[in-house]
Recover the amino acids of this structure.
């Protein structure tokens, strides 16, 4: 578990009734706590770019180091991206986290991602899908495609609270890697980013 904790100016731990021990022992996966006096752009009421980057990097590392992934016999395995559901009260682009994870997985040589398959039959790359369909049409023969081996799915959850002028927002990123032959998840991970402070700030 990686824990970065720095008390904001004038902040009293008892204000929110949460102590460092609670974060260290009460959270699954990994927890990162950031405050409004660090050298980062911090928005207490929404997800910032560095939040996506931190979650994607941590979860990619966890997946690639998983014993289940180490046991995959045939590499690179083919991966499809399923639904990443944002269960939060703000508009988010889930591609920001899945794209970074895909880059890490592809560069590892252990996975390759299908861009002609997608949820609801919608491909990510319409041209590639159209080219495949055109070849099947003119040759009157289906083009054999490698069946996907795994799918990646998950959700993003938020938990917000406020005590006086101190605000706290936690964003929980959850992902699962499912073996499509068995329908069982072979890897699951959760990363929590907790943001505390009195106001949004920009650090230099």
């Amino acid at each position: 578990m990686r824990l970065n904790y720095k008390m904001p100016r004038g902040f009293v731990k008892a204000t929110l009734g949460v102590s460092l021990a609670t974060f260290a022992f009460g959270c699954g996966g990994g927890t990162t706590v950031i405050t409004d006096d660090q050298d980062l752009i911090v928005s207490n009421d929404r997800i910032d770019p560095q939040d996506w980057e931190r979650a994607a990097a941590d979860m990619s590392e966890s997946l690639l180091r998983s014993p289940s992934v180490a046991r995959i016999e045939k590499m690179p395995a083919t991966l499809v991206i399923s639904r990443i559901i944002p269960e939060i009260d703000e508009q988010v682009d889930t591609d920001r986290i899945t794209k970074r994870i895909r880059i890490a997985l592809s560069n590892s040589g252990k996975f390759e991602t299908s861009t002609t398959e997608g949820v609801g039959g919608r491909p990510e790359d319409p041209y590639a899908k159209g080219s495949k369909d055109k070849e099947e049409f003119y040759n009157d023969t289906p083009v054999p495609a490698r069946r996907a081996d795994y799918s990646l799915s998950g959700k993003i959850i938020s938990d917000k609270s406020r005590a006086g002028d101190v605000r706290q927002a936690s964003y929980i990123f959850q992902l699962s890697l499912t073996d499509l032959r068995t329908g069982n998840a072979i890897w699951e991970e959760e990363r929590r980013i907790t943001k505390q402070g009195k106001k949004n700030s920009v650090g230099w």
Residues 13-202 form one domain. The chain has one domain: 13-202. The chain has five helices and eight strands. The CA atoms of residues 107 and 127 lie 23 Å apart.
